[in-house]
Design brief:
With 193 residues, the protein is an alpha/beta fold. The chain is 34% helix and 16% strand. Keywords: ATP-binding, NAD, Nucleotide-binding, Nucleotidyltransferase, Pyridine nucleotide biosynthesis, Transferase.
């Protein structure tokens, strides 16, 4: 089985994440998309994160009606900060018959050279890339790499930061979130402080 790993803090998960995950589930040749909730991205501030299990619950609520998209807490069990190479090695050991690939935006592809042991990741795993509005793929050092697959996915410019800031400002961001995610956030008064 071919599994696409879509890593993120998902703080919170929003419709943009689902649009991208569903597009890869339906059009990339991957059998399933695992939305890997990252407890701590080494390139992000951990203090701004909602509790790990609340973010996992939001991903579960957002994906429960999508049979090809699964939430994953695999990085909760690994030492922090989380490095993709370690997660991939752990998953390959746990599921030797699965083929794991990465899903990322082209902005992340352009910073791949900053990742721990990125050469090993590229040597052993395919990377599926979705576009951003400010395309920089023409200048990317990875554009001709046979392990990199640029997918003509919808361009979605919604950010979790925007959603958090606007919930705090008492703006209506309900259309940007799956219904059950919005209800959970509203019921638990998340992101309001």
């Amino acid at each position: 089985m071919k599994i696409g790993l879509y890593f993120g803090t998902f703080n919170p998960i929003h419709i943009g994440h689902l649009i991208i995950a569903n597009h890869f589930a339906e059009y990339s040749g991957l059998d399933q998309i695992w939305m890997v909730v990252t407890p701590h991205n080494p390139l992000k501030n951990k203090q701004a994160l909602l509790d790990d299990y609340q973010r996992l619950q939001l991903v579960f609520l957002a994906t429960e009606e999508y049979p090809k998209i699964k939430p994953s807490d695999i990085e909760f069990k690994l030492s922090q900060p989380n490095y993709t190479l370690n997660t991939l090695a752990h998953l390959q050991d746990k599921h030797p018959n699965y083929e794991f690939s990465l899903i990322m935006g082209e902005d992340n592809l352009n910073s791949l050279h900053k990742w721990k042991n990125h050469e090993v990741i590229l040597q052993n795993h395919e990377i599926y890339v979705y576009p951003r509005i400010s395309s920089e793929l023409e200048n990317s050092i990875y554009k001709n790499n046979p392990k990199i697959h640029i997918i003509d996915a919808p361009i979605v410019e919604i950010s979790s930061t925007f959603i958090r800031e606007n919930i705090k400002s008492k703006k209506n961001v309900r259309p940007l979130l799956p219904e059950k995610v919005w209800e959970y956030i509203d019921h638990n008064n998340l992101y309001k402080k």
